[in-house]
Each structure stands twice: as structure tokens, then as C-alpha cells.
Amino acid sequence: MSPPTARHFLLPRCTLGCVVGLVGCTEFVLRDNPEPTDDEVEVTETFKQVDRPRVDLLFVVDNTASMEPARAALADAAESFVATLDADQLAWQLGVVSTDLDSHLSGVLQGEPWIITPATTDGPAALARALDVAPGQAPTGGLGAATRALTEPRRSTDNRGFRRPDAALHIVVISDADDQSGSVLGVEPAEAFLELLDDEATMSGHPTALSAVVGDPGTGCTGLAGTALPGDIYAEVAEASDGAVASICDADLGTVVRQLGTLVQDGTRRFELQAVPVPDTVRVEVDGVRLDGVWELDLDPPAIVLDTPPPLGSALSVRYTIARSVTE
After folding, report:
1. DSSP per-residue codes, 142-198
2. This prediction's pTM
């Protein structure tokens, strides 16, 4: 969720001692009232929809010997890939891990710096270096490696700073073999990984997806880099998460790049509230126009979830009465 640029609190039926709102800050303080009354506390929270979508990109690259030609092609495409991200006006950052599950570096972001952003000096060169992952051996487990990269202890130690709480997440797996992450994710790796993506979407309020650049599902394929096995598990996750599936034999990331823009261009749908509302009192407006029947109220934690994101750059206002149990 993108933090609001300001919050305004309207108190027509309450003294100012009930609520303190700081304009330009997200702090919201409820103070003990030594003499509780039956007065209701009505507040309005105002959010600014993102105008430059944020996305965290995780490349998961097969580092077995058969992938050497494909990795070289990826490094060659680094400049055009970064240029496309910049052209889409995304607030992006990018990290790379290998598919290796046995290495002590499994799930650790590669390269220096380990997080590449639009501000990185010579970003394309930094990305090309990161994509040149150290050689490894089968079994390869892109889903398991991504899981380790995004969960503890890697998330807040080796990979600190990569996963932003207010950014979409897009994972891109590049492999000429199918996923073999049973040792990390159990007998149903696709299902387990989709649960991880759901958890990430819930925490951030932004979309999550996996795209797969793999051997053609069901058949595999043969290209300039050699023969690729079917990437059926990766394709299953990609299709279920609304990601893209591209053939590694085509050696073209264009489909995936276009999908990145589609994934994050709509912005945020979930806006967390600072107090629990009385459900029947909630009123939602976008740029002064009331919305009815196109949003839901979550109570744990309290949040407004819209059916579709409001327009980029728009202002969303949520007015409600605070549930009495919170103010007593």
C-alpha cells in the first residue's frame, strides 16, 4: 500500500481530545478519555493513489551448464530490458537469484549491488553481471529458490531492502528444465508457491505474479541454445497468477516485459485504515465522487478493498465512525 500523503480527520460529534491527526503524516493516535461519553467519533482518511507504480522484480536464473548460452543471451538483453522498464515509468528495483537449492547461497541475491534500481550507476551492466550466476548442478528449483529469497531469514538479512511493503512483485523464472522444489515446497510446489504469492499480495495490497521463460509446456522445444524440457509446473504458476509464459527457445523476453507494465499499471486496490469502522457508516469517494457497491470492508486489519484500482494520481477518501470498542 502506498502511504497516504495526508490524512484529514473530521470531528463533528467529538471533542478534539478524542483524536489527533497530523497532516502530512500517517500517525493516528487514539487517547484514553477519563470521562467516556456516548459521543460518536467520525473521521475521514484521505489516500493518494500511486502515480508511478512500484514493482519489485526477482529474476530466477537456471545456473546449470546447459543454460550457459541462454544466460549469455540474457546478459546481452540487459540494456534493452532496463530501457523498457524506464520507458514504462515504473519505480522498479530488481534482484537475481539462481535456481540452485543445494548451495549455501540458495536464495541469496547475486551481484554487486545486489539490488539494482533506476539510480544504479550503469544499471544494464550491473544487471548483466548479476545474471551471470555462478555455475551449479541439478536439481534446479526456481520456485524453492524464490521462496527462500522472499522469506526469512534471507528476506531481512542477505536480501534486506529488496521487498518493499508498498510494491507489486513480479518473479521471472528462466530455465530449460521444470521445477524440482519438492525438498523446499513439498509434493505440490505450484500450490505452495501460489499461496506465497497470495500472502505477498495481501501484505502489500499490490498484485503479484510469476512469469516463466521455459521449455514449451507439454512438449519442450529445441532452439539455438539446445533442447529444453517442458516447463509445466512453472507454466501452471504463471497462468494461475496472471503472469506470462514465453518459450526459452525463442530467446525473447518481449512478452514478459510487456506483461510487467500490465501487471502494475493499475496501482493499488487495498487501502488500510487506522481504526476499525462501524461498517454501516463507511463512505468512500474518489476525487469527490461517491462509490457504492464496488468496494468491500475488511476488518482484520481494517481496510477498504476496491473491485478495481482508482485512477493513477487520484485521491481516495474514506469517511466512517470509529467502532466504540476502539475508543473506550
Report:
1. HHHHHHHHHSTTTTTTTTTTSS-TTSEEEEEEE-SS----HHHH-S-HHHHHHHHHH
2. 0.69
